[in-house]
Amino acid sequence: MSTTAPHRPFERTELSAEAAALVTGPAEHPLHPDHTPTGQLSFGAFFQGVNSSTIWRLPESGDQVAWESFEALVATAERGKFAAFFLGEGLRLREHRGVPFELDVAGRPDAQTLLAALAAVTEHIGLVATQNTTYNDPVDLARRLQTLDLLSGGRAGWNVVTTDNAWTGENFRRGGYLDHEDRYVHAEAFVQIAEQFWRGEQIEHEGAHYSVRAQGDLPRSAQGRPVLFQAGASPTGQDFAARTADVIFSPHGALAAAVDFRRSIVERTVAAGRDPGSVKILPGAEVVLAATEQEADEKVRWVRDLQIGPEQAIALLEQYWGRDLSSFDPEGPLPDVEPEVAESGVTRGAGFQFAKAQELTRAWREEAAEKGQSILEFARVQAGSRRGTFTGSYDAVAERLAEFARLGAIDGLNITPWLIPSGLDDIVDHLIPRLQERGVYPTEYAGSTLRENLGLPAL
Amino acid sequence: MTTTALDLGAQSAGVPLQRSDLPVLAVDLISDPSVLERIGQLAQDLERSGVGALTLSDGGLHPIHVASYLAPLTRTIALLPRTDAVYVEPFHLATQLMSLDHLSHGRAGWLLTAETDPAVPASVGRAALGPEDTAREAADVLEAARLIWDSWAQDAVVRDAARGVYVDAARLQYADFEGETFSVRGPAITPRSPQGLLPVLVTDVDRAAVGERVATELADGRVLDLDVSTGARPGAVADTVRQALTETTGPVVCLVRLVGLDLDADPLGTVAELTATLREQGLIAAAPSAEQSLRDQLSLPTAARTADPARRSDRGRLTSEDHA
Fold this sequence. Notes:
A: alpha/beta; 2 domains; ten-stranded parallel sheet; two-stranded antiparallel ribbon; 15 helices; 38% helix; 13% strand; globular; disordered N terminus; B: alpha/beta; TIM Barrel; seven-stranded parallel beta barrel; two-stranded antiparallel sheet; 33% helix; disordered C terminus
């Protein structure tokens, strides 16, 4: 049972000016008439295992594949009463200009295989695997997820992702077979088949992309079925999430954007005939903390310097220019040459393709020139802007998050540590006690299942 | 593992065999949801009683994940899921198995089966294959899996801070496997696992379905099955093992596997008695130590990587002279 105090409606005087300006209703429904804040936050720990978010250059940067790294990080997360431990997935090694990308952390174990092992050494924390609907078979994946749910006593989660990427398809039997528009249609049918399997039903599916005949034959888990996470940010993705997901892993770290996103999801959830309280929002986030604001400012700069070195800065621009920029000085201004491609997308497997290269590179050149930024400085700001960073003193970040909670803008954060395996230590030691003092974070696990620990209604 | 220079036929009961690479004793557990509550304890008890390996047969829960679950609960015992090579995505299967090898610190192996139950292809929307196609597919999937396992050099993660390089693409290679029904590009999304190439074994009951090529040419060895479902007389079991070890043709017996162990009728007592007899008579290998990989236990040589310049992952930036 939860030992946290029941939610206390906030006083207007407790809000910052920024927050007060966003409030449109009474304390029970500050953001939307159909939404009541729980006033509580849940944390997830996102072990990325790829990309530039994880610093590998420091002596204390641990092995990215060793069991001991995962075991240590999950132990810290469980000490901090994190609701979930979250693993990503990429089904093809990232490439840059036709060669596997060498500059960032790369190569990770299979998410579910690893989580099944972590189930044996953890008691409370949820275990969430990112798994792709395009390059899996629904009954096989449903069986593996239910295996994880049963092995962990009802702590499994599935982050449902889709792709239409034929380049990734080169690793799979079907190859690239899915049109971009069909991604969510396919994903929805896939999730429905998985849910039928989890309910122990007879499955007779004849669809555009496959036919499946099977019988669900495993017992129900303690939480009924794995908790469904989804990260769709586009309108189609949001609607898919509002219809099917339990948790939305959104990209919004700023308060105003988070409020807009909450309102959008509430509208869509109600339109889908679901209770808005049955869909939680946990933005992906990076947290950089220090004792004082000034130290935190210095620390976040230090983190960015280590995340994005000169080589990565050039590579970042090369994605958008579509050409070799290695002759440009990372300390100098942005390249004064035109991009060679109409659309970006050279570093495959990254999530920011198809920008209009001409317009974008011109705008960037102007922006960097205006701010007097070098390639390196500009790349660090760009990379940082995608991370949803919460930075500041322990007290300031705690206060800001408490405000998010009181408004009900978010239900928690999915935190990517920038160091493995020690990257959650200061969050657990310094931030969480302050959130607990403010009554917005649990002091004990609410229950034994992931569903319970996320505050989701029982199925 | 070899059988050269052995004269096993001359051995009589009770006299230790001279083979240096004796088979490893394994116990088969079924991944049935009803055993979940006690499977961790059972694995630990079997490890303590000197069993060298556990095999996980499919009883509903996915055997690879059950093997993973047991990995951190045990220290020396090898873990071999018995799982299909036909109606699967080869890339996923290879990734899952090499991940098991990582998290078990080199204790993973694969009991390769070829599914013959028509419900399995129906569940993934594929047509059931006939015997020949099944055997060909199993061979293709095994070859593809090995190419994926072999796609990263042991030292591919260089962490060269001076050059800003985390992984050296020159130490990666594509799998570039082209089979009859599928192709796989690679490289692996997981760095090379401790054993590099996981031992792949075929049980006697699966031999017909996987076909002779997989069973005798491609796999690392044979699994001798001993059905102990109706109890087991140690003397008779020892005779069967001795007989199998004296066979001079066919694949080498790598594992001696107890199947059908009755979990409700003193399974540890049964296993302890058989283990003692088989060890006394020199028919199975000693209990493994913590530092031993499954390859070590099976006396398989360290898996050397096959580097293929034509498949190097950095070929996209090489000039033709670099290739030569």
